[in-house]
Amino acid sequence: MNTFGKQMRFHVAHDFANLGSLALRAVLDEWTPQGARRSIVLPMELRQLRDEDGGHEIRPFCMLNPEEAQQLMDALWTAGLRPTEGTGSAGALAATQAHLQDLRHLVFKTKPKNT
Questions:
Q1: CA 81 to CA 93: how far, in whole Å?
Q2: pTM of the entire structure?
Q3: Bridging pattern class, strands 35-40 and 21-32
Q4: Greatest Cα pair distance in the chain
Q5: E-assigned strands of the chain?
Q6: SS3 94
């Protein structure tokens, strides 16, 4: 980051002591005219809604800019999580590209580079 601003960074790790759960940690780095400052995100507080609470807006517990959201997704990916329904994964794309290359060799009667 250039001079002033904020950046949220996420860390994801397996916590095998808690039945293989994922431990999610977040750090907020801030740059101000007074200097750098680091904050950590504390555990969330869950509050049970009551019938008389109906109609109240449920506010987000966290706001992320697109770069921070991407960094969170990358951290989850590194920890081994994958989308439930994903199209266009890197493996599928590589297989499609290899298949197209094979078809080109058949149609244009060329030799593959790896032979």
A1: 19
A2: 0.62
A3: antiparallel
A4: 75
A5: 5-15, 21-32, 35-40
A6: helix
3-state secondary structure of 92: helix
Residue type, 105: H
- In DSSP terms, 21 is beta-bridged to 15
SS3 66: helix
Q: Tens digit of pLDDT per residue, the chain (115 long)?
A: 344 688 899 999 998 888 889 999 999 999 988 999 999 999 988 888 877 777 677 788 888 889 999 999 999 999 988 888 765 566 667 778 888 888 888 888 777 666 5
Neighbours of 28 (CB within 10 A): 14
- From residue 113, how far is each of 53, 73, 93, 101, 103 by CA, in Å? 67, 36, 20, 10, 14
Contact between 29 and 5 under an 8 Å Cβ cutoff? The reply is no
Beta carbons of 79 and 13 less than 8 angstroms apart: yes
Alpha carbon dihedral 61, 63, 69, 72, in 10-degree steps, equals: -40
